Amino acid sequence: MKQVKLKDGELFITLGQFLKYVGLIQTGGEAKYFLAEHEIFVNDEHENRRGKKLYEGDQIKIVDSGDFMINRH
User: Fold this and answer.
1) How far, in Å, CA of 73 to CA of 34, rounded?
2) Phi, psi of 66, deg, nearest 5
């Protein structure tokens, strides 16, 4: 499982920001299309909202791309 660190002072990041951060999309505008074409699960629940807030401890599974966890350290 790959760890994704929150920046200092950040309480959360959005799913769209996360996709950009891990390099699956290049721009925020691509998030809508990526989410429509890929199965994504946040804490084992299907998710397709690019504005979904991801907090420390959340687990993200992207079918065919990997498993990730939001982390502070």
Assistant:
1) 28
2) 130, 180
Map residue 59 onto helix, strand or coil: strand
- What is the identity of the amino acid at 60? I
Q: CA dist 71 to 5, 29, 38, 59, 66, Å?
A: 5, 25, 23, 10, 16
Phi, psi of 64 (to 5 degrees): 70, 5
% of the chain exceeding 70 in pLDDT: 100
Token reading at 73: 């350290």
From first CA to last CA, the distance across the chain in angstroms is 15
H/E element, 41: strand 40-42
pTM of the model: 0.90
Centre a 10 Å sphere on the Cβ of residue 35 and count the other Cβ atoms it contains.
Answer: 20
